[in-house]
From TrEMBL:
It holds the Pfam family NMT1. It is found in: Periplasm. The lineage of its organism: Bacteria, Pseudomonadati, Pseudomonadota, Alphaproteobacteria, Rhodobacterales. The keyword Ion transport does not apply. SUPFAM superfamilies: Periplasmic binding protein-like II. One of its GO terms (cellular component) is periplasmic space. Residues 1-28 form the signal peptide. Gene3D superfamilies: Periplasmic binding protein-like II (3.40.190.10). Keywords: Signal. This is NitT/TauT family transport system substrate-binding protein.
Length: 337
């Protein structure tokens, strides 16, 4: 165990002990803006809001929705959002290097035995022979921005297959979906609540699983400004406690299925208030159910995955070699695994 991980584990002992506790409303309607995507993977925040876990901690939360990870990181740095959940990106890391942001926990993870993110091919590329990741060489791959999680996933898959990809930055997830459906790009990776409905509708083809190439991938993290992490500990602990309670409910209802069918149905209806809101409930339900990946208990953070991601960003020249995990992460709030 590295010194960094050891310090994080020691610092997290107190945090781990307090996260599951019933709420302590000591903050008296402290207003917060929480950044999110309209993804099932952001359900912990939605559950914490809808079931009063934030309110019970004295937090008056409103959501600010984004369509990509890097604009969310900028919003945290500028003060337009207080906390957010999204993937590690080059933008987030660079802002951390400037002293503007800090990762304080983990959220969505790839886990063996749980259906996770999918590798997709356009129908045109599939018909031309792209029926598995082994055929990716020379193909185009959709990303939001250079240094996004999509860029990282594409590169890791391509390296494993000995493939060379052409990356197409399209800025927003809806634009990537449109490009894949129309055949303007050949391939992409995305969470199952988006991938499976697209495939079921015949708009794209599933050709593989991200977890086969990046096992135990810490897909998303919880983060805030560096000043909040350092100077507003009580508020940050309260946010994480509520978030963790939301994650527990979500995992029990839709991942582990230990809460029963009625709880699962209630959870899907709750998430539908935020995800696939343009669809009728019955049409949205399969995608939400199929998108249920693990959200880490107690917002634990997989430091091995974070280190791997940092190593890739450095190798690609997207961040400075001097940046370390300590630059990006405050390990004192949650268990480090």
């Amino acid at each position: 165990m590295t010194d960094f991980t050891r310090r994080g584990a020691l610092g997290a002992m107190g945090a781990a002990a307090t996260l599951p506790l019933m709420a302590r409303p000591a903050l008296a309607q402290t207003k917060l803006t929480v950044g999110a995507l309209r993804f099932t993977s952001h359900a912990a925040s939605f559950v914490a809001y809808e079931r009063g876990y934030f309110a019970a901690e004295g937090l008056d939360v409103e959501f600010k929705f984004f369509q990509a990870a890097q604009p969310m990181a900028v919003a945290i740095a500028s003060g337009d959002a207080d906390y957010a959940v999204t993937a590690i990106s080059g933008g987030l890391i660079s802002l951390a290097e400037k002293g503007a942001t800090k990762v304080i926990g983990g959220a969505l993870s790839e886990e063996k035995g749980i259906d996770g993110q999918k590798i997709l091919a356009s129908n045109a590329a599939y018909e031309a022979g792209l029926t598995s990741p082994a055929g990716l060489d020379g193909k185009s791959f959709g990303i939001t921005q250079a240094g996004s999680s999509f860029h990282y996933m594409g590169a890791k898959i391509a390296a494993a297959e000995g493939a060379t990809l052409t990356y197409k930055p399209l800025q927003k997830v809806p634009a990537v979906i449109g490009a894949l459906k129309s055949g303007q790009i050949d391939a992409w990776t995305i969470v199952p609540h988006i991938a499976k409905p697209l495939a079921a509708a015949g708009a794209v083809q599933i050709i593989g699983n991200v977890a086969d190439y990046i096992p135990d991938y810490q897909v998303t993290t919880v983060f805030t400004s560096a000043s909040t992490a350092a100077g507003e500990r009580e508020k940050t602990q309260a946010f994480l406690r509520a978030f963790a309670r939301g994650a527990d409910d979500f995992n029990a209802a839709l991942v582990d299925r230990t809460a029963g069918d009625e709880a699962a149905e209630e959870m899907v209806r709750l998430i539908h208030k935020y995800v696939y809101t343009d669809k009728a409930y019955e049409a949205a339900k399969p995608g939400i159910v199929n998108g249920a990946m693990r959200i880490n208990k107690d917002a634990a953070l997989n430091m091995g995955s974070v280190e791997d991601q940092l190593g890739w960003f450095k190798a690609e020249g997207l961040i400075k070699d001097s940046i370390t995990a300590e630059t990006l992460v405050d390990p004192s709030y949650v268990p480090i695994v």
